[in-house]
Records
---
Amino acid sequence: ANEGKVEVHSVTVDCKVTSRFAHTVMTSRALNKANSSQEIFFEVELPKTAFITNFSMEIEGQVYVGEVKEKEKAKKQYEKAVSSGQTAGLVKVSGRKMEKFSVSVNVAAKSNVTFVLTYEELLQRKLGQYEILTRVKPKTPVNEFQIVADIYEPQGIAFIDVHATFLSNDLLPLVEKTVTEKKAHISFSPTMEQQRTCPSCDGTLIDGDFIIKYDVNRAKNLGDIQIVNGYFVHFFAPPDLPRVPKNVVFVIDRSGSMSGKKIAQTREALLEILKDLHEEDFFALIEFDHMVSPWRQSLSKATKDNVAEAMKHVHKLRDMGATNINDAVLRAVSMLVKDRQAKRLPDRSVDMIILLTDGMPNSGESNLGKIQENVQSAIGGNMSLFCLGFGNDVDYSFLDVMSKQNKGLARRIYEASDATMQLQGFYEEVSSPLLSEVDLRYPDNAVEFLTTNHFSQLFNGSEIVVAGRLTDNDLDNLLVEVFGQGFEDDFKVQGQASASNWDVIYPDEEYIFGDFTERLWAYLTIQQLLEKSKSGSPDEKVNATAKALEMSLQYSFVTPLTSMVVTKPETEDGTDSPLIADKLTEEQRQQAERGQAHQLASPALYTRTHAYQSPPTYFVDGD
Amino acid sequence: PHFMIELPDRGDALCFNINDKPGTIFTLVRDPESGILVNGQIIGDKKIPPDGKINTYFWRFGIIHQTLGVRLEVSTREISVFQDGKRVKLLWSDTASLKGPNVDLLVTKDRSLTVTLKDSVKFVILLHKVWEKHPYHRDYLGFYTLDSHLLSPSVHGLLGQFYHGIEYEVTDLRPGEVPEKPDATMYVKGQELNVTRGWQRDFRRDVKNGENVPCWFIHSNGTGLIDGDETDYIVSGLF
């Protein structure tokens, strides 16, 4: 705000990761040097996979703390403030991986303000690594600037890489990295002078992404099970499993809207993907507009000759016509079914369809619900459907639901110069199944509130995570079994997990771990309930939404069902100007990108209600 | 431990904390007329937490009903009932009920013990099980009076003194240290106290998370609200 009249004293990012569960606190302190009050803005970007858990502002010694409330209720409660434009909190999309949280407050002359934002996320293993992404843009050099990350991984840290988009040769040595077997400490704390673009300049070099990438030592067979505080989490990604051959049908949209860059990038990506096919894989190409045109009538083994033929065909890919997704996908399904029936495909192999489209179906069946129904019924749980939504015109939620109904997942492909890389990257993630129909089992009488424990596939470079609550706090050994179908044999392991003594693993640490396993479990459960609330039966959707809401409130997570509400100090005209932070869904992000600004709004003090029961009670209990 | 006095007639509640050295035994209820006594002993965390705040909790209660000749000792480990020279031991790990002429007990596995003493008092003791390997915390107990209307007017103790109601007024609501917790002035027992609006938790329906109950918090170990100070309630033995 008003450059020169606001001094940013400190910007600190403190990230603690314990067994992939990251807890990040961003703090910023500024002084209004002006002789009159002025609006000071706090804008930060956080990963879209993270949930905000806390936000507070300290102004003139008064702390204003955020509270997580039910989104719909908060909206209704503050409709009036919303309609009169008294809203302040805003969450916006910021690129592909981040979303922006911004607030502004009026700060009196010569006064300080401190903003603290906390968010949490479960880091996902992709292509063999976890990534912690911190985006920093302090705009001017800051007296105290610090990024600190402490990573605690009881499995042991296999490698750790740190880089930042703004790291020059001068700044690079300032990144301190201390890695021991199970712990890593990373810090970056340039002085004000080191931050400057030139010795007497006001500009700062610090502007961009600070990225930490690491992996843990993979535990063989059973995986790694951690039992802490009555909750357990099971990480499963054993090393050295042979990949399972796949039978993949690429269903490619070549309709008119794909013209220009999109069709060129699709062509380019397909050529690279075809090159990467393993010889034991089978593949097919089906192009579609209003017509469906298979390259061949059945799948072909990925021999050098067949791949070369396919590449020649891909070179000829041209855009034309309308979009008939229904018939194209159904054709892919029937091709796989027929080839299976004719025993042209190996017994132990995985069937998958990869659909790439950029638009809404407008030819043949165009009712989205009906298409989902047709596809689900044709697939019948026998293959996986992965969908790539190219650009902003496609209805992403339609693809997302359709994939999830069919053991797959969807991904948005952003229209940009790197779209080819995005397409390839997604393919790389899903192209190496190691196991299929993976079941992780625990004794019914020992665990409850288990997160999803059946997975259609385990892909190379990814990780399966299951968490749950133990019914017995004193449990020393938890019996665990994992079943799956591998390339040559069935995968079956059994073993016992025991609670580790964290005091022994990290003897020099204070008790920092608290309830991270419980929060990890809650985060995972909420994510899965939110998925279920989109793709389950009507009853399941209602129940999943209600449960996800209850847990979001209980664990103070800002999810798409809740809002973080902070009452700001009164402005000079005596009005309260509350602010609210929401969590965007992928659909909302897409809408926002289409130009529909997503403004979220308002609210004031919230009174908790408690149903008093008669007669009176008098009690004493723990604090 | 946190104490809570719920006053449904007023739609309000009062609360305070009592802390002392681990090992201290407090009298919670003493009714000389009916011969009822409830004492509780506190323990602390396994070691001092990083914030340096020592938390104490009840881990053992001794309950006597002299007239009925019943004595109960309830700890986080086990439950013992002594009557007519006999001892019955119950475990928290079993669901069990015991119905006698003077006393009814109901143990809900790893969760609660409901005690009904004939024609006098009904209460429930909650077991809070903490992860065994937790570096700081350990198991503790909560004590909830469910029915006390048959006790005599002379009943006393840290909880007992409130069984027949309490008169108080709260005025002068003003901003506190945090916006959600305003301060106010409370007039009670002829004194003027600075109190703070806050919440404490009732764990009866949800033993893990509890439910927040808004209440007026009386600072400094309930000074001004309780008769005397907390040291007046310290006793040397559980019975």
---
Amino acid sequence: YPGVHVKDEL
Amino acid sequence: MNIFRFAGDLSHVFAIIILLLKIWKTRSCAGISGKSQILFAVVYLTRYLDLFTTYVSLYNSVMKVLFLATSGATVYLMYVKFKATYDHNHDSFRIEFLLIPCALLSLVINHDFTVMEVLWTFSIYLESVAILPQLFLVSKTGEAESITSHYLFALGSYRALYLLNWVYRYMVESHYDLIAIFAGVVQTILYCDFFYLYITKVLKGKKLQLPA
């Protein structure tokens, strides 16, 4: 689901 | 984690260390915009709230704490410890002109209308323009010390390297985040003029002086 973004960056 | 992302992070950490060392060794923050430093502190505070909610990796958490701590230390050095050396008169950029549009934009264009997501979006937008008070200060004084130029070059390179990281991730992992990409492009464009001066002047041993 594109609304949930994986925030694995800084 | 790919090489572009890692190089970007290293460049970012390098920039912060250069700045802290400059202030500490010279006991002065002359030529540095306190307003940009406050904006960066706001950027990290609003983005890294997820330290308490999501765990990505030890690397991620350590870097987040590092950015929070070092930006807090920079603001402390500028506004408390070496306050007397702060170039108050030249650092006259009105930060509300950046804060308010970024806040409004993050309320309108975001991935999800939740507090955490809007704050994250706000921090991404704000980071893209947070260097403007610093560039404004350089343009007002017409020059920058070499060490300040190295700081700006490392800081600008960081997001440019992230752009390469996003191209790589899109191709290899089909991963992309339009908000981050858009803001990253804006952020990198803002440095272009500076990059040009850095390469044509500072790297040739000359001081960064703007043409009159």
